[in-house]
């Protein structure tokens, strides 16, 4: 438990960052646990990232999350990166240690897998082939989590094939990199399809994919949460597929961050989810 006299500080560094729902979530947890503290959005352009991270300790921050576009750059700045984040190739969370050194980890993988398990009871990674669209940092966390959960075949489709191939080489056998043109056909026989690109996010065009080869029992997932229902998820729902958006991933990745910063593992309650949903 944190010392009762300590004012707890954490935040999220991003550019842009004001759209983030993380402050709302973390400040809900401070209130719920009766703790004095705050979680702030920190608008940090790339050229100020190193200075901002080094400023965490003198300012008394327990740590911070890092988001777009800092997840890979921050990994090079911190003093130590754990094996999970090293394997994923990006960090999502920085922990300030008592000596002022910075430790980087990645909670996106946990957040994604936890949210699937919570929202889709009985879900299994080995139920059938999984199609993952996109090969950026988000995709790496999702693919790593799915492979660790026992996925036997992950069809990884990306506009830039070489990025998908790099993941396939690094993560090994379940990952099969496929060219962008094959995204429609790759859905045949899949048990799950996940969009990890930014397509469909507010201000972005919809993900360009035809769903006619996707079986009706397949689960369609998106890691985007603004809007809650992307055009991709709306199309899947309309043809009878189960869907899940990226809000559960966001909420669940906050739990291990709190554990690392404050020694408490907070709950993702229906009340928290409803509160955040109301603002989207
Ligand atoms: P993040 O770390 O948030 O995942 P990223 O590394 O920039 O962000 O990855 C973004 C993903 O969205 C990539 O897979 C990217 O495809 P490329 O590797 O070809 O760049 C994908 N993406 C972005 N814009 C796209 C578009 N217009 N059409 C298809 N894919 C797109």
Describe this structure in words.
- The chain is of the alpha/beta class and 280 residues long.
- It has helices at 22-32, 49-59, 73-77, 83-88, 108-119, 137-148, 161-171, 231-238, 247-262, 270-277, and strands spanning 8-14, 37-43, 63-66, 80-81, 93-96, 102-105, 130-133, 154-158, 175-179, 192-195, 219-222, 242-244.
- Helix content is 36%, strand content 19%.
- Strand 8 (154-158), helix 7 (161-171) and strand 9 (175-179) form a beta-alpha-beta unit.
- Helix 5 (108-119) packs across helix 6 and helix 5 crosses helix 9 (247-262).
- The longest helix has 16 residues, at 247-262.
- The mean pLDDT is 96.
- The site of 2'-monophosphoadenosine-5'-diphosphate has 16 residues, from helix 6.
- Ligands (ions, cofactors included): 2'-monophosphoadenosine-5'-diphosphate
Mean pLDDT: 96
Structural class: alpha/beta
- Per DSSP E runs of 2 or more residues, the count of β-strands stands at 12
The coarse overall form would be globular
- Helicity range: 25-40%
- If helices are DSSP runs of H or I spanning 4 or more residues, what is the number of helices? 10
Strand content: 15-25%
Oligomer: single chain
- Cα(first) to Cα(last) distance is 33 Å
N-to-C order of helices and strands = EHEHEHEHEEHEHEHEEEHEHH
Largest sheet, strands/sense/barrel: 6 strands, mixed
Spatial order of the strands forming the largest sheet: 2-1-3-5-6-4
Regions with little confidence, pLDDT below 50 for 5+ residues: none
Radius of gyration: 19 Å
């Amino acid at each position: 438990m944190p010392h009762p006299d300590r004012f707890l500080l954490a935040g999220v560094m991003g550019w842009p960052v004001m759209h983030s729902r993380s402050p709302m979530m973390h400040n809900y947890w401070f209130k719920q646990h009766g703790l004095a503290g705050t979680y702030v959005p920190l608008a940090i352009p790339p050229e100020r990232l190193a200075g901002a991270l080094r400023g965490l300790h003198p300012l008394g921050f327990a740590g911070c999350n890092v988001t777009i576009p800092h997840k890979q750059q921050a990994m090079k700045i911190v003093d130590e990166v754990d094996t999970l984040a090293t394997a994923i190739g990006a960090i999502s969370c920085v922990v300030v240690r008592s000596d002022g050194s910075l430790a980087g980890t990645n909670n996106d993988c946990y957040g994604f897998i936890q949210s699937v398990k919570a929202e889709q009871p009985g879900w299994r990674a080995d139920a059938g082939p999984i199609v993952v669209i996109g090969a950026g940092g988000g995709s790496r966390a999702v693919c790593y989590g799915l492979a660790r959960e026992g996925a036997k075949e992950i069809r990884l489709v990306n506009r830039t094939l070489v990025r998908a191939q790099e993941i396939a080489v690094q993560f090994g056998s379940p990952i099969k990199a496929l060219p962008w043109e094959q995204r429609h056909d790759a859905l045949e026989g899949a048990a799950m399809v996940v969009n990890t690109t930014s397509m469909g996010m507010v201000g972005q065009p919809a993900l360009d994919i035809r769903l006619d080869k996707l079986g009706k029992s397949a689960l369609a997932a998106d890691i985007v949460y603004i809007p809650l229902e992307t055009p991709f998820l709306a199309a899947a729902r309309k043809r009878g597929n189960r869907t899940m958006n990226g809000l559960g991933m966001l909420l669940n990745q906050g739990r291990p961050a709190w554990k690392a910063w404050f020694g408490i593992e907070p709950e993702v309650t229906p009340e928290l989810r409803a509160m955040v949903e109301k603002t989207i």
